[in-house]
Amino acid sequence: MIVYGTKYVIEKKLAPSSSAYVVIPFSSIILALLVGAAFLVLSGHNFFEVYTAMFRGAFGSTYGLSETVVRTIPLTLTSLGVALAFRMQLWNIGGEGQLYMGAFAATWVALTFPGGSAWWVMPAMILLGMLVGGLWALLPAIPRAIWGVNEIITTLMLNYVAIFWVDFLVYGPWKDPHGFNFPLTATFSSGAILPSLGNSRIHAGLFFGLILAVIFYVVIYRTRWGYEIRVTGENPGAARYAGINIKKNIMLVMFFSGAVCGLAGMSEVSGIAHRLQHGLSPGYGFTGIIIAWLSRLNPFVIVIVTFLFGGLQVGGYIVQTSGIPSSMVTMLQGLLLFFVLGGELLTNYQVKKVPAKKVTAAPAGDDSV
Amino acid sequence: MTKPYLIELKNITKRFPGVIANDKVNFNVKQGEIHVLLGENGSGKSTLMSVLAGLYRPDEGEIIVRGTQMVFRSPGDAISAGVGMVHQHFKLIDSFSVAENVILGDHNVAPVLNMKDIENNLAQLSQRYGLHIDPSARVWQLSVGEKQRVEIVKMLYRGSRVLILDEPTAVLTPQETAELFKNLREMARSGRGVVVITHKMQEVMEIADRVTVLRKGKAVATLEKKQINRRDLAWLMVGQDVVRQYKKKSPPGEHKVLELQGVHCMNDLGRPCLQNVTFTVHSGEIFGIAGVAGNGQRELAEVVSGLRPVTGGSIYIKGNEITGGSPRRIIDHGVALVPEDRLGTGLVPNLGAVDNLILKDYRTGKLQRGPFLNLRQARENTKNLVNRFEIKLSSLDAPVKLLSGGNLQRLLLAREITAEPHLLVAVYPVRGLDIKATEAIHNLLLQQREKGMAILLISEDLDEIFKLSDRIGVLCNGQITGIIPAEMTDIEEVGLLMMGSDQAGEIAL
Questions:
Q1: How far is B503 from chain A, CA to nearest CA, in Å?
Q2: Which of residues B182, B210, B238 is at a domain's end?
Q3: Confidence band (pLDDT; 50, 70, 90) for B301?
Q4: B307 to A240: CB separation less than 8 angstroms, yes or no
Q5: Which ipTM value was assigned to this complex?
Q6: How many domains does chain B have?
Q7: Domain A46-323 indexed as CATH 1.10.3470
Q8: Whose CA is closest to B73, among A3, A361, A7, A1?
Q9: Across the interface, do B80 and A364 touch by the CB < 8 Å criterion?
Q10: Which of A221, A235, A248, A296 to mutate to test the interface with B (most CBs of B within 10 A)?
């Protein structure tokens, strides 16, 4: 058998060109929107109108913009939190649960000391929210560090434990007796509520995210501990060889990762809901994973991407009124991740053409390659 | 009449970045023979056989199967041309039965499986060659020897006329080895060709009808059975060139830097590896460890640098016991390691030169500024080292994985040497480097020796060991089979010690 033909092979590029870092993500986003458009058209909508409406809704008015920022606050925190763990190749999928545990701890402070002064109630809520979120992440980190138990499974499962724990509280012991039997706690007193900007729902939690992005950057790139995280994440073998205590760092990094997610929960109850309630987070912990990856774990890129994702969610919320299902937004998020990560392959690899070559295959016959 | 060739490899050349693994190698297999391919690790045996089995495509040369020239594009092509390879690491699925493993990937099997038939065929086939296996047994239930038989039967079942076995006895007990050799004889008698890859001379003496010796990628000789003797083989394997030692300015020092006393350790599989290893390295001395790869060299380096736990004995650095110490503690005692796997262990491929050069001292002295790193100082140090060690970089922050092997090694050595350790453990320090880079690295090591550093040099390249070492210890099967001052021995003696002490004694008589 003789085979003629040109072959295409995928080869690893030695150094990705710098323009590829810009061109490829943008083309990926456009492709994701196009595929999303195909689904819209199939379900009988004018995709152009839908996209325009989404964009206007999210960024075109003061209200829309402020709502986008409101979404950005918890998303920035969960993205930064999980990104810290991802830096060390620790797959913390438990941001959602850590958020709920942070919200739970902050709520405990608010409900136990009603009428307390903001000067000490607020710091206590922040610290306890972070501590409990961090401990919730430390729980799977310990077996991971000592016996190598897969943290993807354990952190994922602990999400449900945390969510149901909060549900238990708001349906049971913590339910507001004057709340018409809704699954929520009593409203926090003013000392436990984060100040907000004017009439909008934008609250001081915004600063948490911005400050933490800076701290994240400084810790990772400027400190010795951050250096250890980078080395361990890139090459655990070299970390061991350099005498870095990997087990200790697994626990520390997971703790802080959870603490930041816990802070997201604290800022949600204190800044937005003003109480603990069922369904506090629409999956901020999970969306944070997508954002962290899309941003290549860079804290400043995370802030920008989060803003866009916040806009996507608000835009999706707004077009729901014109009959577009909310699952459309979830689908677009998935498409974005799919195309951007797929595009990443092209940043690091190139398709190379192999010239046609005469190939004689084995005579023995059956090579259905 | 001479028997026909089942397969011929003509002028096979295969290059990998920086090395020529096979250099115009000729090799052939006749019907009914057992042809042994002998050579040290890294001599190109496995590459050559991978070419034959369709895993690699040669850059040059021809593969001729029963008179027809062919191109193997995949192992599938090789198998359908009648070439089957039994790898050192078995390619079996534990939860499948023997029969299921045998038909896995076979295109000739009917779409609806008749396992009874297949099992019967297998039973008959294995019976014929005395390969005792139960076709319905699950693979995870089998011993290592049985698994190997499954691999062999798999190749026979696919109609392999040429059977290649890559170091088949490495995993077997002596009884299993004897059994295997009987089976191989039987297969040769039935008109197949058998190729056995090995570095053990004993095996050549036992089963070879012909032997081809590879050295540094070249086929240096092919001998018929009656021409085979141990002395010639050892000589062919390790090379006949006279090795000139580098000139050394000073004699080695007197102070004991590294002391190992009766050290034992396990390998990655949890089997005993190092056994009762005892030796001393002095200041200003290069102590070379010679041996065929896989005899405990890597484990020795890891034990000394604290990366592998010790199961017996004790280790001292300058009189301080460090047995069981953490890598960090051992680094603090002044032990530096140039590991075997530069990018995998010694460096962080995706980080730049600055980040890589501070790997060992980022937590000490000048680089520390509270919890922060003194990045300005780190960049300054990096610039100096890059100049001093002539490392060619595109930028200080470009990922080091883009560097060439020689530059990587210079970077690694620059870091380890400037830490001014008492002991430097260098594992295969010039593997994969070209002549110029090799010389530069060797000179660096000699300079450190003159400065009084103790150096434990582990290498599979005997020339290198001889050129650099003051004393040579030979490691074989995890044991030190001899410690000899370099000027009192020759490559041949060390070569024989490397193959196992008994044989050396036998030859010496």
A1: 38
A2: B238
A3: very high
A4: yes
A5: 0.78
A6: 3
A7: yes
A8: A361
A9: yes
A10: A235
